[in-house]
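Here is this case:
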Amino acid sequence: MISFWWDNEKDHLKIPWVSWEKMCRRKEIGGLGFRDIGRFNQALLGKQAWRIWEKPSSLLAQILKHKYFKRKTFLEAGKGTRPSFAWRSILFDRELLSKGLFKTIGNGQNTKVWEDKWLPDKFPRPPVKPSVPYDGSL
């Protein structure tokens, strides 16, 4: 679509009368109503990341878990060896997803005291006193 509006031919250049940003604005505010494909793609990938997180029993989540994060949660998963383009794309949007998530403690069974982020800072921090025993199973 972009090449239709701004493509160059050998003999003459097409003049970009309107920026792509203005063309992507809603019609109500003077744009042409085109979707910003990059943002739309990011939204769809974020939706897939949310589905994997929210419905771990779905077929897609089970396949990805078996291939890329057998012993970890989706938020802890790494790229793995020879990751597919789809998996790398979902991981890119997983960071955006994790910024919007918060955790309910409940019974504390799945709470990792030393690994979970409690405050939006450079945590987890080591214990204040070296004499405090560290129990990684917390």
About this structure: The chain has a mean pLDDT of 79. The CA atoms of residues 24 and 35 lie 6 Å apart. Residues 37-54 form the longest helix (18 residues). The radius of gyration is 23 Å.
